[in-house]
């Protein structure tokens, strides 16, 4: 059950000039984007800061992200000491969170020794506003974070001349695909080599039907684990590549669980039945809600959490009883229309789930009867 740490032990002594960039390298750089690099990497693209130097400063500063399921430190320790990644230069680091605008955005650019760049967008961190933005993606044709991703890509492209790869994990994958779809057409046509969405959620129909999205569609690689719960959300037109995982359920979202063989992931033919079932259920449910109802669902979930006064999931967990009391009080004062839409949406989700399951059972039974008839039973 090898993962990208094992890949580094095997391939880490070879530069990108000696062995070309591959899909596993993409996931490594997407995971490294989760590092807290505040104060280590300049935002304006000036200077040269290598990954090994960032690692040293990270340790000296006592940065601790062990509360994250995909804590980047184990990968950083190994990558920073490798020939392949240790000398990569990092520039254009940005990390912003805005509660009022409801967005959490971070990105960094890696300068590879094959004279190409990899723009890595960070996925959702543990901030509550970051998780709220994830749900907003299902309600809005664009979010502030997605617009920031476009601005970031254009800014880096204007300041450099190298070919570009763009990618990210989770919400970062969504940002990467959105930025590639809506950046300047000259950047699309002349600079972007590949776009990687590593278990990233999809988009509204408005986005997937846009001209910009169509122009880069053949360069977007959607890579998801077999029991994906995130990369199945909303609309995708990209060709899906399904990867084996050593974990189960939502834990498959963790990049450390993705299985690697040689210079590629271990692929399977399709998503698991449970993942496909959930995808169909959520798609039908979301399509059945108006934009106003979707926004009300998000408000019903997050307004009480905001009222609890916590900014992160860790803070919510520090005093569970106080937090629960604040949430319940805020929920009781919730606008009647929001409560009505929220309850109605949950009921429709349950009904859609029942309908999809019934259809799945019908299809399975019909297939079984057809196979029996073919055998003459």
Task: Reconstruct the topology from this structure.
Blueprint: H1 4-11, H2 23-32, E1 49-50, H3 51-60, H4 73-80, E2 89-98, E3 103-111, E4 117-121, H5 128-136, H6 144-159, E5 164-169, H7 171-182, H8 185-190, E6 192-198, H9 205-208, H10 211-216, E7 220-225, E8 240-243, E9 260-261, E10 264-265, E11 267-268, H11 273-287, H12 291-307, H13 313-318, H14 320-332, H15 336-375
Parallel strand pairs: 4-5, 5-6, 6-7, 7-8
Antiparallel strand pairs: 1-2, 2-3, 3-4, 8-11, 9-10
Arithmetic mean of pLDDT: 81
Please give the order of strands in the largest beta sheet: 1-2-3-4-5-6-7-8-11
Biggest sheet record? 9 strands, mixed
Element order: H for helix, E for strand: HHEHHEEEHHEHHEHHEEEEEHHHHH
* Fraction in helix: 40-55%
Protein described:
The protein has helices at residues 4-11, 23-32, 51-60, 73-80, 128-136, 144-159, 171-182, 185-190, 205-208, 211-216, 273-287, 291-307, 313-318, 320-332, 336-375, and strands spanning 49-50, 89-98, 103-111, 117-121, 164-169, 192-198, 220-225, 240-243, 260-261, 264-265, 267-268. The longest helix is centred in the C-terminal third of the chain and has 40 residues, at 336-375. It has 2 domains: 4-272, Rossmann fold, CATH 3.40.50; 289-375. By secondary structure, the chain is of the alpha/beta class. The mean pLDDT is 81. Strand 2 (89-98) and strand 3 form a beta hairpin. The strands form 2 sheets. It has a 9-stranded mixed β-sheet, with helices on both faces. A two-stranded antiparallel ribbon has the order 9-10. Helix 6 crosses helix 7 (171-182). It has 15 helices and 11 strands.
């Amino acid at each position: 059950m090898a993962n990208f740490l094992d890949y580094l032990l095997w391939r880490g002594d070879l530069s990108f000039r000696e062995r070309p960039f591959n899909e596993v390298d993409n996931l490594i750089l997407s995971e490294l984007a989760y590092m807290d690099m505040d104060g280590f990497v300049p935002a304006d693209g000036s200077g040269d800061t290598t990954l090994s130097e960032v690692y040293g400063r990270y340790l000296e500063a006592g940065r601790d992200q062990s509360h994250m399921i995909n804590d980047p430190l184990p990968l950083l320790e190994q990558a920073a000491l490798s020939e392949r990644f240790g000398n990569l230069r990092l520039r254009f680091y940005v990390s912003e969170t805005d509660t009022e605008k409801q967005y959490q955005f971070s990105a960094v650019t890696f300068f590879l020794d094959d004279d190409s760049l990899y723009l890595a967008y960070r996925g959702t961190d543990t901030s509550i506003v970051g998780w709220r933005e994830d749900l907003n993606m299902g309600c809005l044709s664009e979010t502030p974070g997605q617009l920031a991703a476009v601005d970031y890509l254009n800014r880096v492209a204007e300041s450099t001349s190298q070919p570009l790869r763009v990618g990210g994990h989770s919400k970062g994958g969504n940002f990467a695909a959105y930025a590639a779809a809506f950046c300047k057409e000259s950047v699309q046509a002349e600079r972007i080599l590949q776009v990687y969405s590593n278990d990233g959620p999809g988009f509204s129909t408005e986005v997937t039907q846009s001209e910009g999205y169509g122009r880069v569609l053949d360069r977007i690689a959607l890579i998801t684990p077999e029991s994906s719960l995130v990369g199945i959300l909303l609309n995708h037109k990209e060709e899906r590549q399904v990867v084996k995982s050593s974990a189960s359920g939502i834990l498959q979202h963790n990049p450390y669980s993705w299985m690697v063989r040689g210079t590629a992931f271990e692929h399977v033919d399709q998503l698991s039945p449970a993942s496909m079932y959930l995808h169909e259920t959520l798609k039908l449910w979301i399509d059945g809600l108006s934009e106003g109802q979707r926004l009300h669902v998000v408000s019903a979930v997050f307004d009480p959490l905001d009222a609890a006064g916590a900014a992160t999931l860790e803070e919510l967990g520090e005093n569970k009883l106080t937090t629960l009391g604040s949430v319940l009080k805020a929920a009781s004062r919730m606008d009647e229309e929001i409560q009505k839409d929220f309850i109605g949406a949950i009921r429709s989700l349950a009904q859609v789930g029942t309908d999809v399951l019934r259809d799945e059972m019908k299809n399975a039974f019909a297939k079984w009867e057809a196979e029996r008839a073919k055998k003459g039973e």
